[in-house]
Structure formats: C-alpha cells, structure tokens
Amino acid sequence: MGGSSTGVHDTVVNQLLTKMDGVEQLNNIFVIGMTNRKDMIDEALLRPGRMEVQLEISLPDEQGRVQILNIHTAPMREHNKLDSDVNIEQIAKRTKNFSGAELEGLVRAAQSSAMNRLVKPGGKVQQVDDEAIDKLKVTADDFDYALENDVKPSFGLRDCVSRVLEEGRLLIKETAAPDTRGFVRALLAGLPNTGKSFLAAQSAKDSEFPFIKVCTPEEMVGYSEAEKCAKIRKIFEDAYKSPLSCVIIDNIERLMDYSPIGPRYSNMVLQTLLVLLGKRPPQNHRLLVLATTSNEQFLYEADMLSVFSKVIRVEQLHSANHVMAVLEEANIFSEEEIKQIEDELRSRDGVSIGIKRMLELLDFVKQSEPKHRVQLLLDGIREAGL
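Structure for Vesicle-fusing ATPase, as requested:
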C-alpha cells in the first residue's frame, strides 16, 4: 500500500480510515490486519486510535515447530504412511529459523522423496505397482534428504556462519571433555567487518561456562605497556580460578598496538600473550581462549599462529545469495526492488562486503528517499569491494 504513484493507494487508505475513524465509522468492531511488509503500510493507519497496537509474529520456537509439523504430518499418520522412525521432536530441533510455510514445504519435499523411490530413472513411462504404493511410507531418510537438498530457511544461518558456530561448539566440547587436555586456543581470522567479534561472543555464550571474560583494546586505551600486560595477566589469573572458563581476546593485533607503518607493535604485550597462551591452566581447571584478528599475516610474521590450536577463517559476503538473504531479513525493499538488486549483483564479477559493513550500509540507505535506495545500496556494495 506504499510507494504507488496512482490513486489506488490513497483510495484504499481513505476507505480504511473512514471505516475505522470517519463520520460513518463502525463501532464495537475489533479490527485485525496482517502484513508481511509493515514498512509499506501508510503511517496514517498506524497512528493512535487506529491500528496502534502492532505485534510482530516471530518465527516459531521448537515447541511451535513440533505443533506445525504434527499438523502437516497428521494425514500421513492417519493413513499409516508415516514410518515409525520419523521423530517429529528431532526434526523440530534441526529446523531452527524455519517458518510455518517452510515446514510445510519440508513435509511435502519428504513426501516427494518417498514417491521418487518408486520411479526408476529413464525416459519411459512404466506402470507402478499398486501394492508398492500401498506399502510406501515416508521415512526419516526422506526428511533428511529434504533438509539437505530441498528446503533451506530464508532467515536461517547461512553456511559460513553455521560452520563457524559449529566449530565453536566442537571447541566447547573439547574444552569441557574430561578425556582432553582442557586447554583450547582458537583464532577467528578474517577481513574487517566480517562479524568475528559477534561469532566469538556467541560461541562463548553458547558454552554456558561459569566464567567468561572479554579482553578488548577499547578498555585499555591510554594504558602503558606495563599496565596492559598486568591487565591481561589479571584476566587469565581470574580465569584459572574457575573450573570452566572462557576468555575472548578481541582484535588481538590492536591490543599489541600494531601499525603497518614500520611495522610497529608492542613486543612486551606480544611476549605476554605468547607466554599466557602457551601456559596450561592449573590441574582440574579448563580454559577456552577465543581470539579475533583482522591481520592474520602479522600474527604469522610475529610467530603467534603456532600458539593457537585452531584457526577459523570468517568469510565476507561473497555471493549474490548471501546479500539477498540479508536484504530479505532487513525488510527495506519491495519484491521488485529485491529482484532488481539481485539481477544487478549477478551481472557483476563478484560481491565482497563484510556483514557489519552491509548492515551499516542498510542503516544509511534507510535514511534516503525510497526511489534512491536501490542505487545507493548497489553503489555502496561496489565501493566496499574496491
């Protein structure tokens, strides 16, 4: 209802306003409106006394997904077409960020997978045995195939993000497992604005360790080298006191005052970090260290990469599909504009922009006139890749 230059938009809005708030308004009527594009609704309809209460219906949680899956699998269950190995609760756990429509599509894709077992490859049409159809059931393997190949959540974690978080979960398990050394040091490396700090923080949050401490350059601005070393040592000593601890060292090269001109850096801070990252925690104490860097080459030259047991590389948005996933969730552009942006990005040689830079660009684009937003976004993406 927004962005149209014709009189249709004004006519529809005026009719709704007349019914709700005009001379011939309807009294004692409870009006409920639904939309997928709140940004396109005329502001006059959202003012107090009209549709003043706005509720965002978020994606279903795990229990909600169980209910939705049960609804869509009920006909199969009723006609004994759902195999006993299908675990609805397990499927719900694996379908995080799926919408109701995507869950329905998943069930249909699983049904198609089961039907495809009766169809042999080849160009000839063949008669399908009625008895085989009667015995056909949708199995857990069909749902696995559908999840792997057919249905992906529009608002779900993309491959690069889920990969980093999955590796983070493995590191957490390694740290906590009683049959391991209990001292894990991982480095998240990538270009600036790729979301390394967020991914490290999310992994630390997922660990649910009783002690989590973040060491950042911002909190040490103005510190001398000796004060920085003392602060870093204090963080590690505090971590040793807890049986399970996680320390995040954010932007580790900035912590060492690194500058590419020279190059220059604080050797005292470097040596402090090398010693602490090489020292195992006391017995019966386990420690996970997550560090982030935007300059892996410097750490290599400083002989620091060797102290990390794992290096996880965080990528930029490097395809039109990645950008489209962000745009769909941002809910700024119309379907026609998204199609225009997608066509333009696919015609280019490639895309290269960090997720943080992308979000900042979207915040900037929001402030402009709607007719200029597409071009501003495309220009910003192009400039980020230069």
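The radius of gyration is 27 Å.
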